Amino acid sequence: MEYKEMVVSFLVLMFFVCGVIIFVIHRALISSTDGAVKRLNDEIAKASAKQAELSNKIKKADEELAKRQAEARDLANKMRSDAEQASKEEREKIIAKARAESEEIIAKAQNAKETIRREIQKEMDAKAVNFSMKILNEILTQKAKGVLNDILVNEFLENLRNTDMSRISPDIQTVDIITLNGLDEKSKTQMAAILKEKLNRQLPLNISTDTNLGGGIILKFGSMTLDGSIKNLIREKGIVLQEQLQ
C-alpha cells in the first residue's frame, strides 16, 4: 500500500515537475520567439529605413542626373548657337569687307577715270585756247590787236573799281602788271588811283609786256592774280559753254 502511495506521489511529483518544466520551456520559447520577432521587426524596420534612404538617394541622384543632362543640353545648344552666330557674323564680316574693297576699287577706278578726264579736258582746253589765240593772231592786224587791247584794258579798269581787294595782304609792296604792249599814261594814272583807293596805300607799278598775251591785262599781287587777258576770257567762256552743253 505504501509502495503504491509512493508511486502515486512520485507520479504526481513528476507530473508537477514536468508541468513546471514544460511551463518554463514554453515561457522561454515564447519569450525567445517574441524576442526574435522583435529583433526581426527591428531589422525589417532598419532595412526599410535603409531602403527608403537608398531610394531617396537614388531619386536625388536621378534628379541631379536629369538636371545635369538638361544643363549639358542647354550648354550644347548655346555652344551650337554661339558657333552659328559667330559663323554668321564672320560671314557678314567677310561679305562686308569684300563689299568695302569692291566699292573702294570702284571708287578708285572712278576717281582715276575722273582725274584722267580732267587732265584730258584741261589739256584740250589749253589746246583750244592756244588754237583760238593762234587764229586771232593770224586774222587780226596789229591795228586791230591794238584796238582790241585798249578795249579790254578799259573794261578791266572799270571792273577793277568793283573788285573786292580785301584779301590782298598788307605785306604786298608792289603790283606786277603784264600787258600786250604796255600802258599809256592815262591807263597808268587810272590804275594807280583805283589801287590806292582800294588798298588805302600807294603801290609802285611794275609793268612788263608779253606778246603772247593776245590783249588785255594781268595784275599780280604776290601769289594772287587778277587775269583780264583775252586768253583767260576765252578759257572762261569755254568753261561756261561746256557747262551749258552738259
TrEMBL record:
The chain crosses the membrane at residues 6-30. Residues 37-126 form a coiled coil. Keywords: ATP synthesis, Coiled coil, Hydrogen ion transport, Ion transport, Membrane, Transmembrane, Transmembrane helix, Transport. The keyword NADP does not apply. PROSITE patterns: ATPASE_DELTA. It comes from the Bacteria. One of its GO terms (cellular component) is membrane. It is found in: Membrane. GO terms for molecular function: proton-transporting ATP synthase activity, rotational mechanism; proton-transporting ATPase activity, rotational mechanism. This is ATP synthase subunit b. It comes from candidate division CPR1 bacterium GW2011_GWA2_42_17. The lineage of its organism: Bacteria, candidate division CPR1.
